[in-house]
Known about the structure:
The chain has 306 residues and is of the alpha/beta class. The protein has helices spanning 2-12, 29-39, 43-61, 73-76, 79-95, 110-120, 147-160, 176-179, 188-201, 220-229, 247-250, 267-270, 286-305; strands at residues 16-20, 67-70, 99-106, 124-126, 129-131, 138-141, 163-169, 182-183, 186-187, 211-215, 235-237, 261-265. Helix 2 crosses helix 3 and helix 6 (110-120) runs parallel beside helix 7.
Amino acid sequence: xxxxxxxxxxxxxxxxxxxxxxxxxxxxxxxxxxxxxxxxxxxxxxxxxxxxxxxxxxxxxxxxxxxxxxxxxxxxxxxxxxxxxxxxxxxxxxxxxxxxxxxxxxxxxxxxxxxxxxxxxxxxxxxxxxxxxxxxxxxxxxxxxxxxxxxxxxxxxxxxxxxxxxxxxxxxxxxxxxxxxxxxxxxxxxxxxxxxxxxxxxxxxxxxxxxxxxxxxxxxxxxxxxxxxxxxxxxxxxxxxxxxxxxxxxxxxxxxxxxxxxxxxxxxxxxxxxxxxxxxxxxxxxxxxxxxxxxxxxxxxxxxxx
Length: 306
């Protein structure tokens, strides 16, 4: 799958992943009203609104980008109906030819970690039948529990030819409380980055490893260091747009071949119609506004990369 993602980045010339992180507040009233008319103001109604919203966004941007990244918490909050909407979103995106990165941030040890891996990028056996429950192409993983928590995912990656993105330096303001702490004179995120590179050597695609890293756009100098420590790891870069990252901040995350990173924008795209720059589209044309935001993001990144 890492080979397919790299090929799609080359084809689209857009190292962009659209974060499908819907909140009811982002969803236009007309979409909500239609869902509530059918399902009531229920968890099922919320899930239906989310799915309809996602499908319209995906239809508008599928030809422009290689991948999407649904954040599972935005669906989990609506219980089982929300999780069904999550899985249906994954299915719809894959049917549209998009690579799906499940932003699930799982991390545990032993059989628990293996179960998480099976649920999201692997398979489960039920009697004589085999199922892929959420069937994402990649998922995000928290490395805090060490190799015990990561190795089961790597085993599934090798078996299924899928991938993971390991949290290394996250974009949130308080990330430094732990990630920047010095260990033997070096920040913890560097040590994690080195370990990601080592894990990645166990599962290589043609050019890049199945084991990628998450490094926030809000820390470009740290990104430069981590890029050198993980030359064969694709870096998933959150923090663009709404969190303050700009195209010029992204250059350190890329390799000289113009590859090596894929940049996420979530509400900057899916809720673009609420921004001043795209208000002229209006609420009813939210998907067209999302498409315009993707095109502007692509231009910003390409200009920065030269």
